[in-house]
Amino acid sequence: MNPKFQPESMFSDVELVCEEAEIDEQWSFVGNKSNQRWIWYAVEHSTNVILAYVFDKRKDVVFKELKALLTPLKIKRFYTDDWGAYDRYIEQNRHEVGKRNTQKIERKNLNLRTWIKRLTRKTICFSKSAKMHDIVIGLLINKVEFGIDIHV
């Protein structure tokens, strides 16, 4: 989870609220294309800042992990594509499906694919282990999105 949004940060006396968030998942693979690895993440709708992310398969249980990370933010509205897990685990009155309000996260997907060749569908650059796959992508997100110095 983005450290700027964690309650135990220096702003612990401030209630953290995110009005709207976009959620999406992005495909990649480890070793070969049959060994799929997905990054699930959420961005704040107005600023396009990544709020939280998780890695694993494209399964409901993984989305539930991401949703648990987002719960403290008290998000009032979610924008997603039409993947079934979203309909199953987001209340209908807080969920909107469609491309109109997911443009920022789709652009973020493009940026991530440009910066990290492991996320490109047709590539010769791929991870040989899930651990390294997650570390490389996590380091980029921590540096670019969270402002964490990864060289310490």
What does this structure look like?
This protein has 152 residues and is α/β, with parallel strands linked by helices. The chain has a single domain (17-144), classed as Nucleotidyltransferase, domain 5. The chain is 30% helix and 25% strand. The protein has helices at 60-70, 84-89, 103-115, 130-144, and strands at 20-30, 32-44, 50-56, 77-80, 95-97. The chain has a five-stranded mixed sheet with strand order 3-2-1-4-5, sandwiched between helices. Strand 1 (20-30) and strand 2 form a beta hairpin. It is globular and about 45 Å long. The two termini are 20 Å apart.
Which key terms come to mind for this protein?
alpha/beta, 4 helices, Nucleotidyltransferase, domain 5, globular
Note the quaternary state here.
single chain
**In CATH terms, what is the fold-level topology?**
Nucleotidyltransferase, domain 5
CATH superfamily: Ribonuclease H-like superfamily/Ribonuclease H
What is the averaged pLDDT score?
A: 84
CATH architecture: 2-Layer Sandwich
Secondary structure topology:
Elements: E1 20-30, E2 32-44, E3 50-56, H1 60-70, E4 77-80, H2 84-89, E5 95-97, H3 103-115, H4 130-144
Parallel strand pairs: 1-4, 4-5
Antiparallel strand pairs: 1-2, 2-3
Concise account of the structure shown:
The protein is of the alpha/beta class.
